[in-house]
């Protein structure tokens, strides 16, 4: 059963197809939480569960705080939610840099989600390659597959780095165009290894939501959405063929974007409906 799509009448202004602009950074977290609730109910109503990949960073933290608040906490059937991660640093879960650790503190400990439904990347292990293989098996156990045989998340949260990277897919990375693996272990900044979902997995998602805030992201957001750098930036490769791609940003991050408003029916067509 397909969901009913996104209710655009409840969202901020759409200045380009799939690009929603909030007036300030604080409202990005609130709107993202509202979208999370709507999409969770659609997925649970359609197939009995909601499987998503979380991201780290300060912008999703605001969303997690909203979801854990009195306003939203009771609006989600957390017993039918499974959370995974889009990428992780090679640090233990209690490390301040851990994406899992941040989500656990800000969200998972504050909502009634069953502990077995939080599937973290064990990127701190010495046998990182084996850990990546085992995470692929976790995905295989819980997710449906798309026609190409890649796991299909209901939602993947992403950000955009100053260099155009997303998840832990960095410009010039040797395994950026990995086409067979679901989870890879590329080198991040300063050569430190990470664990990340691969591009085919990101592009198999039913929905991808980029969260971008701050004037310091205005230039790279324009590059991702409106320019054609050579080689293309990793974030530009994220384009679910059978799903939706949304950018939820604040006005500061959107300051350099051209305005190309579209009618609602055109927007839903652009986003895979």
Taking pLDDT < 50 over at least 5 consecutive residues as the criterion, the unreliable ranges are none
- CATH topology name: Rossmann fold
Q: Helix coverage percent of residues?
A: 25-40%
Q: Any idea of the CATH class?
A: Alpha Beta
Mean pLDDT: 92
Shape: globular
Domain count, please report it: 1
In terms of DSSP E residues, the strand content is: 15-25%
Helix/strand class? alpha/beta
Count of DSSP E strands? Answer: 10
Radius of gyration, taken over Cα atoms and rounded to an integer in Å: 17 Å
List the defining traits of the structure above:
single chain, 273 residues, alpha/beta, Rossmann fold, three-stranded antiparallel β-sheet, 8 helices, globular
